[in-house]
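Lecture notes, unit on protein representations.

Consider one protein chain, 166 amino acids long.
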Amino acid sequence: MAGWADGRTPARKVKRKSSRSASKNGRLQHHAELDRHLAAWTATQDARTAMEHVQAHGVAAGMVFSEPEAYADPHLNARGFFETVTHRECGTHRYPGLLWKMSKTPGSIRSAACCLGEHNDYVYRGLLGMSDAEMTRLRQEGYIGESYIGVCEDEYERGDFASGVE
C-alpha cells in the first residue's frame, strides 16, 4: 500500500506523514476520506490510464474489462491467457483459459464442452451395462435426453434452436 500514502497517487491529498495514511489502521479508520479523493481522481481518468498509473507506483490494481477489452489486453495475451478451442457445433473460438499458470503443471483447456447427450452411450451402455431395449424405453419415457426441450428433431439437426424455445 505504499503507493497510496507516499504522495505519488491520489492519496497525496492526505498528508504523507499523517497518521491517517501512514499505517493500515490509519487508512482503514479514514477510508471515507481516502475513498473521496480516489473517486474524484478516478472520475477524471479512463480505466486503463488509472490502472497503469497506480500499478507503476506499486499498487496492486486492475480494471474491470469489457469482453473486447479483455481479448485485446496486451498482458493477458502475452501470458497466453486465451486458448483456441474447436467445438464440433460452435466452431473455433478463443476462450479464457486458466486464471493462474503453474510452472510444473501449467494446465490448459483439454477439450471443448460436450454436446447434449454426447456421452449417453458411454454412460448408459458402457458404465451401467444397459441394453438397447432399456435405452430405447428410457428415451421414450423421457429419462434420456438427446435434444433440447421444445426443439423438434429437424430443427436440432439444422441447428435452428431458437424457433422452438422461448
